[in-house]
C-alpha cells in the first residue's frame, strides 16, 4: 500500500496540510497546520472495524465489498 504524505503548504492566506490534491482547512500559522497534520496522520493509522461497503465505479456500476478495518495506510508528515 502507498504511503500517505501530509505536506505543510501555504494556502488561502494561511497554512494548510495537503494529501495528494486535497487541502485541509486553512490555519493561521504554520505551527497550527503542522500540529493538525500530525494529529490527522496519527488518526489515519488507527484500525477501525471490518464492515461492508458499497461504491460506484467510473462506469456507473455498483460494487459490494468487505473492507478490512485493520488495513490502514502508512503515513508521514512532510514539513
In words, what does this structure look like?
The protein is an alpha+beta fold and 79 residues long. It is built from 1 helix and 6 strands; from the N terminus they run βββαβββ. The chain has one helix spanning 30-44, and strands spanning 3-11, 14-19, 22-23, 51-56, 62-67, 74-78. A hairpin with a 2-residue loop joins β1 and β2. It is elongated, with a radius of gyration of 16 Å.
How do the strands and helices of this protein lay out in sequence?
Blueprint: E1 3-11, E2 14-19, E3 22-23, H1 30-44, E4 51-56, E5 62-67, E6 74-78
Parallel strand pairs: 1-6
Antiparallel strand pairs: 1-2, 2-3, 4-5
Features:
two-stranded antiparallel sheet; 79 residues; alpha+beta; elongated; 1 helix; DUF2188 domain-containing protein; 4-stranded mixed beta sheet; DUF2188; single chain
The stretches of 5 or more residues where confidence is low (pLDDT under 50) are: none
- Work out the helicity level: 10-25%
Radius of gyration: 16 Å
- Oligomeric description of these chains: single chain
- Report the average pLDDT across residues: 90
Proportion of β residues? 35-45%
Tally of contiguous helical segments:
1
Would you summarize the structure shown here?
With 79 residues, the chain is of the alpha+beta class. Helices cover 19% and strands 43% of the residues. The strands form 2 sheets. A 4-stranded mixed sheet has the order 3-2-1-6, with helices on one face. A two-stranded antiparallel sheet has the order 4-5.
